[in-house]
Amino acid sequence: MSKEFINYIDSLKDTSIITRENLKKHKFKLREGIMTFDIDLKLLKCVLCKNVNTCSLKKCKHIYKLFEIIYKVPFEKLQFLWTNNNYLKVLKGEDMEILPNDIECPICLDDAGLEGYRENKVIHCLDCGKYYHNICLSKSNKGIVCLNCTNNWLPDWMND
């Protein structure tokens, strides 16, 4: 699991309580403090939080909580929910599918995600889910831009 994703999940402090669930429709009612709000996992909509692109890993804490607690998605697989429509597979009770090209560096095409993942050697774009080897990204002429989604970000290793 990437350090970027772990840091993102750790930054999401969730104190909500699931008050009602409709597993057939994948709709839930949660309470956080004095607020009660709805979440529709098929549409990936949380009334309380802003909507994000389907491929983005920057989903709200409530959506991640429901997939982890209700649908029993292991913590280390949460980052793969948005690839290959895995979130829909989970809702149907099917196994998630992680393909080799989901975790390969788009520059050198070598594995950058699961096999021998080393956090200081790989950067993970949370907007589209692509993994890059630091050395490949630094050699590209667009070193601070994700080549897949063109999101501008400056990885920690480039600050050194």
Between the first and last Cα atoms, what is the distance in angstroms?
A: 23 Å
Succession of helices and strands = HEEEEHHEEHH
Number of β-strand runs: 6
Structural class: alpha+beta
Morphology call: elongated
Please indicate the count of domains: 2
Mean pLDDT: 80
State the strand order across the main sheet: 1-2-3-4
What is the percent of helical residues?
Answer: 10-25%
C-alpha Rg, in Å? 17 Å
The percent range for strand residues is 15-25%
- Largest β sheet strand count, sense and barrel closure: 4 strands, antiparallel
Uncertain stretches: 155-160
Q: Treating each run of at least 4 consecutive H or I residues as one helix, how many helices?
A: 5
Question: Any overview of this molecule?
Answer:
The chain is an alpha+beta fold and 160 residues long. It has two domains: 89 residues, no CATH class; 62 residues, Zinc/RING finger domain, C3HC4 (zinc finger) (Herpes Virus-1, 2-Layer Sandwich). It is 21% helix and 16% strand. The chain contains five helices and six strands. The strands form two sheets. A four-stranded antiparallel sheet has the order 1-2-3-4, with no helix packed on it. It is elongated. The two termini are 23 Å apart. The C terminus is likely disordered.
What descriptors fit this protein?
disordered C terminus; 2 domains; 4-stranded antiparallel beta sheet; alpha+beta; 16% strand; elongated; two-stranded antiparallel sheet
